[in-house]
Amino acid sequence: MPNQQKKVIFCMAGVLSFACALGVTAAIGTQQWLSGTILCKTGALLVNATEEELQKFIGKVQFGLFHGQWVRQCGLGSRPFRFSFFPDLLNIIPASIHISVLLFSAALAVFALVETGFFMFNAFGNPYEALHGPLGLYLWSFISCSCGCLVLILFSAEVKIHHLSEKITNYKEGGFMFQTHSEQFGKSFWIIFACTLVRLLNIFLIRLAGFQFPFSKSKDSETSGTIDLMY
Description:
Blueprint: H1 3-28, E1 34-40, H2 41-46, E2 58-63, E3 67-73, E4 78-84, H3 85-89, H4 95-124, H5 134-160, H6 164-169, E5 178-185, H7 187-208
Antiparallel strand pairs: 1-2, 1-5, 2-3, 3-4
Helix pairs in contact: 1-4, 1-7, 4-5, 5-7
Keywords: Membrane, Transmembrane, Transmembrane helix
Subcellular location: Membrane
Transmembrane segments: 92-114, 135-157, 189-209
Protein backbone atom coordinates (compact mmCIF):
# COMPACT_ATOMS: atom_id res chain seq x y z
CA MET A 1 0.00 0.00 0.00
CA PRO A 2 1.38 3.49 -0.83
CA ASN A 3 2.66 5.54 2.08
CA GLN A 4 0.07 8.26 1.47
CA GLN A 5 -2.79 5.80 1.96
CA LYS A 6 -1.16 4.47 5.13
CA LYS A 7 -0.98 8.00 6.49
CA VAL A 8 -4.67 8.56 5.77
CA ILE A 9 -5.62 5.31 7.52
CA PHE A 10 -3.44 6.04 10.55
CA CYS A 11 -4.78 9.60 10.79
CA MET A 12 -8.35 8.29 10.72
CA ALA A 13 -7.55 5.73 13.42
CA GLY A 14 -5.84 8.42 15.50
CA VAL A 15 -8.86 10.73 15.28
CA LEU A 16 -11.15 7.87 16.34
CA SER A 17 -8.89 7.08 19.30
CA PHE A 18 -8.82 10.72 20.40
CA ALA A 19 -12.61 10.97 20.12
CA CYS A 20 -12.91 7.84 22.27
CA ALA A 21 -10.58 9.31 24.89
CA LEU A 22 -12.78 12.41 25.13
CA GLY A 23 -15.96 10.33 25.19
CA VAL A 24 -14.73 8.05 27.96
CA THR A 25 -13.52 11.00 30.04
CA ALA A 26 -16.92 12.65 29.73
CA ALA A 27 -18.75 9.38 30.48
CA ILE A 28 -16.85 8.82 33.73
CA GLY A 29 -18.22 12.01 35.28
CA THR A 30 -21.89 11.68 34.33
CA GLN A 31 -24.85 10.08 36.10
CA GLN A 32 -26.04 8.30 32.96
CA TRP A 33 -24.55 4.86 33.47
CA LEU A 34 -27.81 3.26 34.57
CA SER A 35 -31.42 4.31 35.00
CA GLY A 36 -34.40 2.34 36.22
CA THR A 37 -37.50 2.16 38.33
CA ILE A 38 -37.79 0.99 41.93
CA LEU A 39 -40.89 -0.51 43.52
CA CYS A 40 -41.75 0.30 47.14
CA LYS A 41 -42.65 -3.28 47.98
CA THR A 42 -43.65 -2.60 51.59
CA GLY A 43 -46.10 0.16 50.68
CA ALA A 44 -47.65 -1.82 47.83
CA LEU A 45 -48.21 -4.82 50.09
CA LEU A 46 -49.74 -2.70 52.87
CA VAL A 47 -52.53 -1.42 50.62
CA ASN A 48 -52.64 -4.52 48.39
CA ALA A 49 -52.08 -2.28 45.35
CA THR A 50 -53.54 -3.31 42.01
CA GLU A 51 -51.82 -2.73 38.67
CA GLU A 52 -53.27 0.80 38.36
CA GLU A 53 -52.44 1.76 41.94
CA LEU A 54 -48.97 0.26 41.63
CA GLN A 55 -47.75 3.30 39.72
CA LYS A 56 -47.99 5.33 42.94
CA PHE A 57 -45.34 3.06 44.48
CA ILE A 58 -42.82 3.06 41.61
CA GLY A 59 -39.94 5.51 41.88
CA LYS A 60 -36.96 6.24 39.64
CA VAL A 61 -33.22 5.84 40.09
CA GLN A 62 -30.29 7.09 38.03
CA PHE A 63 -26.58 6.99 38.84
CA GLY A 64 -23.06 7.00 37.49
CA LEU A 65 -19.73 5.99 38.98
CA PHE A 66 -19.52 8.76 41.59
CA HIS A 67 -23.02 9.96 42.40
CA GLY A 68 -26.67 9.67 41.47
CA GLN A 69 -30.23 10.38 42.50
CA TRP A 70 -33.44 8.51 43.06
CA VAL A 71 -37.09 9.44 43.60
CA ARG A 72 -38.89 7.58 46.37
CA GLN A 73 -42.55 6.75 45.75
CA CYS A 74 -44.48 5.12 48.59
CA GLY A 75 -48.02 6.26 47.84
CA LEU A 76 -47.72 9.66 49.51
CA GLY A 77 -46.01 11.62 46.75
CA SER A 78 -42.47 11.64 45.46
CA ARG A 79 -39.40 12.41 47.54
CA PRO A 80 -36.11 12.99 45.67
CA PHE A 81 -32.78 11.95 47.20
CA ARG A 82 -29.20 12.49 46.08
CA PHE A 83 -26.38 10.14 47.02
CA SER A 84 -22.65 9.74 46.56
CA PHE A 85 -20.72 6.47 46.34
CA PHE A 86 -17.65 7.94 48.03
CA PRO A 87 -17.60 7.57 50.95
CA ASP A 88 -21.28 7.06 51.87
CA LEU A 89 -22.10 3.79 50.10
CA LEU A 90 -18.74 1.99 50.12
CA ASN A 91 -19.82 -0.24 53.02
CA ILE A 92 -22.89 -1.63 51.23
CA ILE A 93 -21.84 -1.90 47.57
CA PRO A 94 -19.21 -4.29 46.12
CA ALA A 95 -16.49 -1.68 46.55
CA SER A 96 -13.72 -3.70 44.89
CA ILE A 97 -15.75 -4.11 41.70
CA HIS A 98 -16.88 -0.49 41.67
CA ILE A 99 -13.34 0.84 42.12
CA SER A 100 -12.12 -1.56 39.43
CA VAL A 101 -14.69 -0.11 37.02
CA LEU A 102 -13.35 3.36 37.77
CA LEU A 103 -9.72 2.32 37.33
CA PHE A 104 -10.28 0.48 34.06
CA SER A 105 -12.39 3.37 32.74
CA ALA A 106 -9.56 5.79 33.49
CA ALA A 107 -7.06 3.35 31.96
CA LEU A 108 -9.20 3.14 28.81
CA ALA A 109 -9.06 6.93 28.42
CA VAL A 110 -5.29 7.03 29.01
CA PHE A 111 -4.53 4.16 26.64
CA ALA A 112 -6.75 5.74 23.99
CA LEU A 113 -4.59 8.88 24.19
CA VAL A 114 -1.42 6.78 23.97
CA GLU A 115 -2.88 4.98 20.99
CA THR A 116 -3.65 8.35 19.37
CA GLY A 117 -0.02 9.37 19.75
CA PHE A 118 1.23 6.12 18.22
CA PHE A 119 -1.07 6.42 15.23
CA MET A 120 -0.04 10.02 14.58
CA PHE A 121 3.63 9.12 14.98
CA ASN A 122 3.23 6.32 12.42
CA ALA A 123 1.42 8.72 10.08
CA PHE A 124 3.86 11.65 10.18
CA GLY A 125 7.00 10.38 11.86
CA ASN A 126 9.64 7.75 11.19
CA PRO A 127 8.46 4.72 13.16
CA TYR A 128 10.82 1.92 14.04
CA GLU A 129 10.18 -1.78 13.68
CA ALA A 130 9.95 -2.23 17.47
CA LEU A 131 7.12 -0.86 19.62
CA HIS A 132 7.05 2.38 17.63
CA GLY A 133 5.74 0.53 14.57
CA PRO A 134 2.78 -1.78 13.91
CA LEU A 135 3.60 -3.96 16.91
CA GLY A 136 3.02 -0.95 19.18
CA LEU A 137 -0.22 -0.09 17.40
CA TYR A 138 -1.51 -3.63 17.84
CA LEU A 139 -0.36 -3.70 21.47
CA TRP A 140 -2.08 -0.49 22.60
CA SER A 141 -5.23 -1.24 20.61
CA PHE A 142 -5.45 -4.64 22.27
CA ILE A 143 -4.85 -3.19 25.76
CA SER A 144 -7.49 -0.49 25.22
CA CYS A 145 -9.99 -3.05 23.93
CA SER A 146 -9.33 -5.28 26.95
CA CYS A 147 -9.91 -2.37 29.36
CA GLY A 148 -13.20 -1.53 27.65
CA CYS A 149 -14.37 -5.14 27.87
CA LEU A 150 -13.47 -5.31 31.56
CA VAL A 151 -15.42 -2.11 32.28
CA LEU A 152 -18.52 -3.48 30.55
CA ILE A 153 -18.30 -6.89 32.26
CA LEU A 154 -17.58 -5.57 35.75
CA PHE A 155 -20.27 -2.88 35.69
CA SER A 156 -22.84 -5.34 34.33
CA ALA A 157 -21.92 -7.80 37.08
CA GLU A 158 -22.16 -5.09 39.72
CA VAL A 159 -25.63 -4.09 38.55
CA LYS A 160 -27.16 -7.45 37.68
CA ILE A 161 -25.45 -9.94 39.99
CA HIS A 162 -24.92 -7.75 43.05
CA HIS A 163 -28.23 -5.84 42.64
CA LEU A 164 -26.63 -2.43 42.96
CA SER A 165 -29.87 -0.46 42.52
CA GLU A 166 -31.59 -2.27 45.38
CA LYS A 167 -28.61 -1.80 47.68
CA ILE A 168 -28.60 1.91 46.97
CA THR A 169 -32.32 2.46 47.46
CA ASN A 170 -32.50 0.31 50.62
CA TYR A 171 -29.62 2.16 52.27
CA LYS A 172 -30.74 3.33 55.74
CA GLU A 173 -34.38 2.43 54.98
CA GLY A 174 -35.52 0.78 58.18
CA GLY A 175 -39.29 0.63 57.62
CA PHE A 176 -39.56 0.15 53.86
CA MET A 177 -38.19 -2.39 51.41
CA PHE A 178 -37.51 -1.52 47.79
CA GLN A 179 -36.89 -3.84 44.87
CA THR A 180 -35.86 -3.28 41.26
CA HIS A 181 -38.79 -2.92 38.88
CA SER A 182 -36.84 -2.23 35.67
CA GLU A 183 -33.29 -1.33 34.67
CA GLN A 184 -31.58 -0.14 31.51
CA PHE A 185 -28.02 0.92 30.84
CA GLY A 186 -27.55 4.60 30.09
CA LYS A 187 -25.67 6.64 27.50
CA SER A 188 -22.33 6.51 29.31
CA PHE A 189 -22.35 2.71 29.36
CA TRP A 190 -23.01 2.60 25.62
CA ILE A 191 -20.25 5.15 25.01
CA ILE A 192 -17.82 2.69 26.62
CA PHE A 193 -19.29 -0.07 24.45
CA ALA A 194 -18.85 2.03 21.29
CA CYS A 195 -15.27 2.92 22.24
CA THR A 196 -14.48 -0.76 22.73
CA LEU A 197 -15.79 -1.49 19.23
CA VAL A 198 -13.65 1.35 17.87
CA ARG A 199 -10.59 -0.34 19.38
CA LEU A 200 -11.44 -3.45 17.36
CA LEU A 201 -11.98 -1.29 14.28
CA ASN A 202 -8.52 0.22 14.73
CA ILE A 203 -6.97 -3.24 14.76
CA PHE A 204 -8.54 -3.96 11.38
CA LEU A 205 -7.42 -0.54 10.09
CA ILE A 206 -3.85 -1.47 10.96
CA ARG A 207 -4.29 -4.70 9.02
CA LEU A 208 -5.86 -2.72 6.16
CA ALA A 209 -2.71 -0.58 6.03
CA GLY A 210 -0.81 -3.72 5.08
CA PHE A 211 0.69 -4.85 8.38
CA GLN A 212 0.28 -8.49 9.37
CA PHE A 213 -1.05 -9.49 12.78
CA PRO A 214 1.85 -10.14 15.19
CA PHE A 215 0.97 -13.82 15.64
CA SER A 216 0.79 -14.41 11.87
CA LYS A 217 4.45 -13.60 11.18
CA SER A 218 6.44 -16.32 9.53
CA LYS A 219 8.69 -18.37 11.78
CA ASP A 220 11.36 -18.28 9.09
CA SER A 221 11.63 -14.52 9.17
CA GLU A 222 15.13 -13.44 9.94
CA THR A 223 15.84 -11.21 12.90
CA SER A 224 18.30 -8.43 12.69
CA GLY A 225 20.48 -6.98 15.41
CA THR A 226 19.78 -3.44 14.22
CA ILE A 227 16.45 -1.60 14.11
CA ASP A 228 15.51 -0.31 10.68
CA LEU A 229 13.14 2.47 9.76
CA MET A 230 9.85 1.19 8.38
CA TYR A 231 9.29 3.96 5.87
